[in-house]
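User: For documentation purposes, I need each entry recorded in a consistent format: the amino acid sequence on its own, followed directly by the corresponding structure tokens. There are two entries in this batch. Please keep commentary to a minimum and don't merge the entries.

Assistant: Recorded as requested. Entry 1:
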Amino acid sequence: MKKKKFTKRYRISIVEDTTHEVRFRMKASRLSITIGSVVTIFLILAILLTIIAYTPLKRLIPGYPSPQTRREAIQNAAKIEKLEKQMIIWSIQMENIQRIYKGDKPINIDSLLRDSTIFQRKSNIGLADKEDSLLREQFLKQEEFDISSIHTAKIEQIEGLLFFPPIKGVITEPYNPAIGHPFIDLAAPNNATVSATLDGTIISAGWNDDTGFTIQIQHSNDLISIYKHNSKLLKKTGDKVDAGTPIALVGDTGELSTGPHLHFELWHKGEPIDPTVYINF
């Protein structure tokens, strides 16, 4: 009985009210109307989903990320990765300071940084772990009774030092002593600020026909840094500077200069060393 009820055919007509003329006539059963309605709904949904998926209309959906949001997410992920690596480097440097304080041999940071797995092995290292806290407490206790013992101690190697980048630029000529280039050249905007890479004393600040305005800084641990081709010097010979102190402005001075850039040299015990090993430009 129920089957007949669904298959029983009905006539649907649309009649004009005034003339009673039949404008539309259709015969259908409840089953065919139900099936037709379901198919129509699915077709409408499919068309809507297709339009939303392949047109800019999808951006109108609440919560859907815009292209700018996706770009910012990618940039933020890259920044986080860079910060994580920097924290690992700081952690290694802190460990070196601990070793030096205890009289142990420091870790060679250069060899560690060449090992890409170091970042995976140390990804869970924090700057404020238990050992670091104990070391800080030990230093504070010593400072209460003998401040001079801390300040007079010298680090006899350079792996544990925290270098400040003189500028943020692009290395156009890398360190290569084999071809007579024991220094680096960094392209940077004209008049960009040049900063001291470590605490020290200005031992030379003046003009040279080949290298233009040049400044040299003597640091502790037999380190000397040299900055050439500046447009202007902000410090004079004899001035004491801290790491990060502005000392000059990037320029294009001297006969050997081919454009605005900083010629940067780093010397240790009379020998040139590669600045990129210790400084993140």
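Entry 2:
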Amino acid sequence: MRCPFCGHGETQVLETRVSDDGDVLRRRRQCPECAKRFTTYERAELSMPAVVKKNGSRVEYSPEKLRASIGLALRKRPVAAEVIEQAIMRIESKLVSTGEKEVASERIGELIMRELKKLDKVAYIRFASVYKSFEDVDEFADAVMELQRPPLLASKGNSE
């Protein structure tokens, strides 16, 4: 693996760990050239469905877009990178498990919101405000109230 810092062609694996569910290898690496350390995640590549946007156009699924959206919502929030990576893997797993060749962008947004709700309430509100295009303070207030409802009431009617 190439070093992301200096571009050296080979790096040394210092430690390898398997995730709890056994689907991902986490490798701690060090570059022999610049001596910097970094982490890589290795997992099986799965065929992701195409994304159908609101305007009806179809685009290739982009893990970078998913990561960027979640990263923006969680910016400056106390959530570990490993926890974020696990949330991303859960979203991607749900997308693959449908077996569908296409998925609506709205579905991806809902999956992101579900994960953010579990990870960080502030990040959830940040994402929801953009995703749901809040127009006024009342919509923010409604989203906050939804977070404050007891879990039994908030999840009524949800099948997932």
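Summary note for entry 2:
The helical segments are 63-73, 81-97, 105-119, 121-131, 137-148, 151-154.
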